[in-house]
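3.2 Worked example (two chains)
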Amino acid sequence: MAHRSALLGTTPLHRARNALRELVQRQNPHSFFVAGACGLLSIALICNLLFRHTDNSVWLNLALIAFAWSCSAAALICGKQFPQWAGLTLVGLFLGLTIFFIGPTNNAESAIASGQELPLIALYLGWFLRPVVGRILMTVVVVIVAVVVASNPVFHAGGELGVTTAVQMFIVMSFCFEVGSLLWRESRRKVQTDLLTGALNRDGFLERLDRELVSVARSGAPMCLVVLDFDYFKRLNDTQGHAAGDAALADTVRYLKGQLRANDVVGRTGGDEFAIMLGRSDATATQQVMKRVREGSPFAWSWGIAQARVTDNAESLFERADNQLYRQKRRRDALA
C-alpha cells in the first residue's frame, strides 16, 4: 500500500497539484490582484485583436498582450515578494494606456473598452496604499481622466456615448476605490488584532501609540499609558488549565472595554500583559480610573501609569510605566 501511494505521488497529475498548491501558498492579495488584473487585460486585448479588425493596432495589441502575460507571470513567480513599487508602476502604465485610448483621437469602441480598466486601477489605489496616499493619487487620476474624457466628442451631449456614460464611469471608479479602502482597513485590523482577546496586538498598539505621541507633542494635551499585568496568572493556568487562563484574558479585555471610554485603546502586549492608552487624561485622573476599574474586576492584576511628555517616545513611556508597575508588585508582595 505504501509503495502504491508513493507511485501515485509521482504521477504528473499529483505533481501538478502540488506545484499549483505551492504556487498559491506563495501568494498574497497584492500578487494575486496584479496577476489577475494583468490576465484580464490580456483577455480584453485578445478580444480586441480578434473582433475589432483594426489593422493599424495589431502589433500594438500583440506587444501589450505579451507584456501583460509577462507581468502576470512575474507577479505569480515573485508571490509575496512582488514589490509595491512594481505594482504602482504597472498602474501608471495601464493608466497611460487607458488615457491614450479614451483620448479625443479614438472612437467610442476604444474609449468604452479602455474605460472598463479604470475600476481596477481605482480598486488597487484603495486596497494597497495607505488611505491618505491612495486618496491623493485617486484624486489626481480622476482629474486627469476627467480632462481627457471632456476632450473626447463621444462623451459630449449628443455624442455616441454621451455624458451619462462618462458619469457612470466615474461613479464605478469611486465605488471601487471605496471598496478597496474598506479592504485595506479590514486587512490592517486583522493584522493588528490579537486573535484570542480582540484587543490590539503589540504592533497595532505601538502604531497607535506613536500616532498619539505625535499628537501630544503638537497639542500638549495630556495622555497616559497604563501597563497592566495579571497577578498569579501562572497559578491560574496550573490549577484550572490553560483554557481557563485564555478565558480570563478574553474576559478581562471585554471588561476593560466596557469600563473605559470608547476612544481609550486596549492592547495585549504579551502573554498576560496589557497596555491601555487614555487620551486627554492626566496621571491623577488615570489613577482614579484604574482604581475604580480594578475594584470591579473579576481577576486580580496590577498596573503602572506614565503620563506622556513632549519628548517621549513609545520606549521611554513604556519604561516609566513598567517601573511603576514593578514597584506596585513589590509593595504587594511585601504585604502578602
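3.2.1 Second chain
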Amino acid sequence: MDATFIISVAAMGGLGIIFAFFLVLADKKLRVEEDPVVEKILDVLPMTNCGACGRGGCHVFAEMLVTKQVTVNACVPGGQEVSDKLAELLGVEKVDAQRPIAVVLCRGGNVEAQKSAIYRGEKSCIAADLLGGDKSCVYGCLGYGDCVQACKFDAMAMNDNGLPVVFYDKCVGCAACVEACPRDLIEMHPPEHKLFVYCKSLDKGAVAKKACKVACIACKLCEKDCEVTGGITIEDNLAIVNYELCPQDDVPTKRCPTKCILYGEDEKMTRDSFYSSRLKKAV
C-alpha cells in the first residue's frame, strides 16, 4: 500500500480524534443546564407549537414563563385546564383563560356567489387571490381551504358549498386559520359574541347583491333594529357590530333582507354534527 496514502489516513484520523476531544471539552464547558422547572412546564403544555401565544413554540414559551415574561393563561390551546396547572406549578394566582373561537365572516359559497371567471391556477387561496379568483365578489371566500390546511387541530373542514366550517367544540383559538386567509375573512371572538355580520364586502348595495345573494347591502335595518344606539353602524357600505354596546340577541337579524347578519349560528356547528349531516346526505 502506498506510504503517502497511509500517512494521509493516519493524519486525518488523528485530526478527527483531536477535534472530537475539543468538541467534548467545549460541550462540557459551554453547556447551559436546562432549568428543571422548564421541563415540568413542558410536561403540562399541549406541545402543539402553534404559536398562538405569540412565541416561537412551546419551549420558548416555557422559558419565558419561568422568567415571568408571559402569563400562565397565554397558552391559548391549553385553555383553563393548562392555565390552572401552570399556576399551581409556579405558585402563582390562577387567572381566567378565555378561549377565543374562529369565525368565518363569509357565507358566499358556490350557490350564493356569482362566478365571473374560470380559475385554472393553483388550488390555493393565496394563489387565487393574486389573480382575483373566480367569484365576482373580490372580498369573499375563495374556497380553496388554506385555512383548513393550516388548522392543526382538525377543527375545520370544507363543506359541500365550498366554504370553510369551524367546529365550535374543537377550535382551540390558535388563530392559524386567521393568518392563512389572504382576505382577512376569519376573526377570533370570545364565546359570548354570538351576533355576526357574515360579509366583508365594501361595495355599494346593488353591486354587492349582484355579486352575492347573502351580501350586506347597507340597508341600515339592523342598525335601526338594534336596541342600543351605536350598537350597529354602517361603515363603508358594511354593517359593523360594536360588541361593547350591542346586545347579543337576534333582534337585529329579523328584517335583514339577505340574511347576512345572524345570531348563534357558529355554536350550532360541532364536528359530530358536521360529519353526521354528511353521512345522512350520502345515505
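3.3 Remarks
Strands lie at 101-104, 156-158, 164-166, 186-189, 195-197, 232-235, 238-241, 261-263.
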